[in-house]
Structures are given as structure tokens and as C-alpha cells.
Amino acid sequence: MNQGDRLAEPRYGDVPERTEGQRHCSHYEENRSHRTLHDSRELEDYLVIPTFGPRKQGMKERPSPPRNGLSNRVRGYVDVDLDSGIDLRLKFVPGRRVFYSLETQLEQQVQRSGQILNENETSFDANLRQRCLAADDDGTGHMITITTPPGEAGEIQRQIVYQRLDPRGAVLDVSGMNPTNSFSLPEEKVEMDTTWSGEVILPLPQSPQPVRCLTEYMVIGTTTFNGLECVKIDCVVDEFEFDLPMPDGSGVAKVLMGSQGTMLFAPEEGILARMEVETVTSPHIGQIVFTTSTMITQEFKTIEG
After folding, report:
1. Which residues pair with 229 in a beta bridge?
2. Which of 37, 81, 214, 240 lies at a CB distance of 3.0 to 4.6 Å from 21, suitable for a disulfide?
3. pTM of this structure
């Protein structure tokens, strides 16, 4: 596959012949107990919401005042040099908190025999906070993620999830929800145009269970985002098909699914800086097609500890 093919828009229509990697994508059916952490007194210390100051653009002087909670000493001012090869690894620093904004846009359409019966769109925002509880000797980390809608009712409606992650982003253990991960980092150092494949577990709007699928990645450059020196990565899940049992047991829907987007990863800090991914799912039930486009944008805001 050449670079032009990798960056092409995915087509949601005819089902292409599935590759070997896509044949390994399967609907995730592992049953897990949904333990909740909402009542844990231990988590109350992790619910502090910072006050974000105005963003400062173009700050390149050295030395400079701390930015985004990172002192000059911690940031290191490491220029991202793809010519020398860079390790992309999550870094787990006990006590460190990373704060993000999260925006979700949904577009839904119902068609019968090509005629649009109904369509609507909606969007919602949230604050996402991650705290590292502990780091193990094998490089894995114990993380708490708290997602809070804006407004006075946000703390009441917050979602709290515990995950144990490896440095590549794989979920080893989880409590509070089904295991999902939005990216998979490579084993080897990356340079410009480096490609790799990794499994991700994505939520499916039409099902309580997420879907395992193979994502293809390509390094497409470097950039600076909100004070972080980042590697820019293209992410694509080629369209594939799977069966989804109907909730009432009346039959099986054929589902087409694919996604594409970009992510920015900050190797010095070992954190995700930004991710924007659009996922399109199209269950087919007889002559009726339910198409949902989900655009998720997660952006780094600040860091503490």
C-alpha cells in the first residue's frame, strides 16, 4: 500500500475484499463485571478541576515560565527529530494529572432503498482528567480517567474508569466500563513514513459491546501543539464487515465500519496531545440502513505533577 492510498478518504459503500488483518477483527463479546468506582472515597482527591488560563502562542524563548504545568526542567525542550528515530511510549508518573477537553459530534441517518427517512445531528462536550495512581516495574501504569460534562450537574453525571495500561496503550485490566483503547503505539522507534499496525477496541453506538479492529498507522510529520513537541500520525481502519445480533433476538444485522483520523503524540512527556478520529458505522437490516458518523476530538489542556 503506498502513501497515497493510506491517506485516501474511506469509502462507505461496496464492501472491499477483507485483508488478513481485517479477518482478525471480531465483535468483542467478552463479558466483564461492571464494577463501579463512583462511591470510592479514595477518588475524591482526583476530582480537582483546574482553572485554565489564556493560551500563549509562539512561546519559544529559553528559559521561559512554566507552561501547561510543565517546568522547563521537566519538559526538557527536546526537539522531535525523526531522522534519529523516536520511541513512542506512554510514560506513567505516579501522581501526575493530565487534563483534556473532549468533543463528540454525531450525525445519524436512516435510509430505505436509498431514500432518506430521517436524519439528525448532535454534539456534546466534556472535561477529561487522567491521573496515574502507580507505575509497575514492568512499565505498566494504573490510571484513573474521569469524564465530566460541563455545567453544574457535571460532577453528578461524571464517569470514572480505572485501567491498567502497558506503554503501548493496550488495556490489561479495567473497572467501570468495557475495555476500550483508542490507539496502539509501535514496538520499534519511528522515523518519517514509518508504518505499523495495532489492534484497538472501539465503542459501537448500536451495541453495548465494543468492536476489536486493526488500525494502520503512518508517521506523517512533527508539530507543536499547546506547548508540546509532537509526532503527527495518520490513523486508518479500512472498512470491514461483521454481524451484529439484534437486541430482541429477531435476527442479525450486517454492519459496515471504518474510521480515519490523526493523532499527535508527545514523546518527551509520554502522553497523547491530540486525537481527532471519525468512525462511520452502517448496520443493514433488510432494506433499511442506519448510518452513524461519530467524530471525537480530544485535546490536551494542561498537566499537573
Report:
1. 224
2. 214
3. 0.72
Q: Which residues contact 132 (CB under 8 A, 6 or more apart)?
A: 92, 93, 94, 95, 96, 141, 142, 143
The reply to whether 204 falls in a domain is yes
Alpha-helical segments (H) within the chain: 3-6, 20-23, 72-75
Tell me, yes or no, whether 61 lies in a domain.
no
Coil vs helix vs strand at 94:
coil
* CB of 241 closer than 8 Å to CB of 263: no
Which amino acid is located at 76 in the chain?
Answer: G
- Residue whose cell numbers read 485516501: 8
- Side-chain-facing half-sphere of 10: CA atoms under 13 Å: 24
Within a domain: 13: no
pLDDT in tens, the chain (305 residues): 444 444 444 333 343 344 444 443 433 333 333 333 333 333 333 333 333 333 333 333 333 434 445 433 333 334 788 988 999 999 999 999 999 999 999 999 999 988 999 999 999 999 999 999 999 999 999 999 999 988 765 566 788 999 999 999 998 888 876 656 778 999 999 999 999 999 887 766 666 677 888 999 999 999 999 999 999 999 999 988 888 877 777 778 888 999 999 999 999 999 999 999 999 989 988 889 999 999 999 999 999 98
In contact, 276 and 301? CB cutoff 8 Å = no
DSSP one-letter string for 25-38? --B----------T
**How many domains are there within the chain?**
1
Find all residues with CB under 8 Å of 272, minimum gap 6, and list them: 183, 263, 264, 265, 266, 298, 300
Say how far apart CA 72 and CA 99 lie, in whole Å.
19
Query: How many residues in total does the chain contain?
Result: 305
Domain interval for residue 231: 23-28+76-90+101-124+180-304
Does 270 reside within a domain? yes
